[in-house]
Amino acid sequence: MVKNSPFSASAAALLLPLTLAAVPAFAQTAPTDVKEDSVILQPDKVTDDAPVVETLAEANLPSWSKDNARALLDFIAAVEGEGLFAKDYDPQAIEAALASGNQAQLDKVATDSFLLLATHLRDGRTPNAARKQWFMTDSDADSTPLLPLLSYALTANDIPLVLGGLNPVHPSFALLKAALASAKTPAEADVIRVNMERWRWMPRDLGAGYVVSNVPEYMTRVVHEGVVIATHKAVVGKPSTPTPQLNPLATGIIVNPTWTLPRSIINEGIGATIASNPARARAQGYTWTGKGNTLSVVQQPGPGNALGVMKMEMLNPHAIYLHDTPSKGAFAAEKRAFSHGCIRTEKALHFSGLMAVMFAGKSPEEFGEAIASGKTTRFGFDKPFPVYVAYWTVVPDGKGGVKKLADLYGRDAPVVASFSKPGRPAAVLVSPAPPQIVPTVAAARPAASASAPRAAAPGMSGIY
């Protein structure tokens, strides 16, 4: 549910004109198209985390009652509505264990199914290899460990409530879940499942305040206490330089930034200009040291600076950040995939003014004076907050439903393909302590620790 914010949208609307009142008109001039900093393309994550293995004694789980096992079966039977697939969780094995009356077998198979299902509800079913350019940090494993959750569910006899509580809390996820129930075709259902998965790849709760850029939507939003207080058009990476999915902390806003050119852009042209016409390069605000392969180039603040009047400080290995641009015409396009990977932000003075006043504790006058000075100034945030660079291709339509967006980088298809294959393994496995190994000869390896867990197949608890 969206909360009422003490910093309301109307308050934000009042703040922005005050912030801009102190900003001179020259700061918003727009010269011809320029290039900004390039994303550093990182290799995809292709392996999943190894499951954490705990012994039966460490897990200290109560036995499964017949009622709890049947409740788990009921949840699995309805799990298609959660965007998952019942067959993944071996309901036949649970049925067979119930029918046989074998308590040890019931404990094993029900625990296996619960932990795998809870993993997929909390972290997503999709293996890392199908999550193209995904580098999100998901803290849910730390905040919601599965074994205490299972122990509570068995003790409280409330399997459905515990499993249902693992869903993302954002209203957009609830809209997707409702849309899945009314999907008219398998293809429509699949793309909704893809986007439910992407919500699960992120922290369950995005936090009280954050900035979110949805790349296929070409939009950036500022959220405070559940209220969207500012919305900005965005220019995102071209298909050849795609913007990755990540959630770095924003630590400050820099106005009148300098721009250190990456080697790729130096080689594309400015290096030749410096060599053949240094006066022209200086007129464009470039300064440099070295030459040839050692050439280092920085563009100084000014109307033609490729980063415009502001840059959001977001420390990450991809060199991704939100920034201004002097190329304002790009924001008029319907499809805005023009950048080298970073996210250009429309109305950047409004955006940076809001950041400086609301999150760095500066007055509108202080912000205006910093912009007008033309000097590089950093406003550090009192409390850093996350920036979610996301990739949702099904989003709320503003009318209580959802709408489909173009899959800009072709990232939906690998997730859909993964639906017909095994998903991620369980995050936690439960295994009995292995037997003591007694060496038969003096040269044999030392005995394994009695408390050391024995390896188990992915998704299997190893309870025997």
From TrEMBL:
Residues 1-27 form the signal peptide. Coiled coil: none annotated. InterPro entries: LD-transpeptidase_YkuD-like (IPR052905), LD_TPept_cat_dom (IPR005490), LD_TPept_scaffold_dom (IPR045380), Transpep_catalytic_dom (IPR038063). One of its GO terms (biological process) is regulation of cell shape. Pathway: Cell wall biogenesis; peptidoglycan biosynthesis. The keyword Cell wall biogenesis/degradation applies. Residues 209-367 form the L,D-TPase catalytic domain. One of its GO terms (molecular function) is transferase activity. This is L,D-transpeptidase catalytic domain. It comes from Sphingopyxis flava.
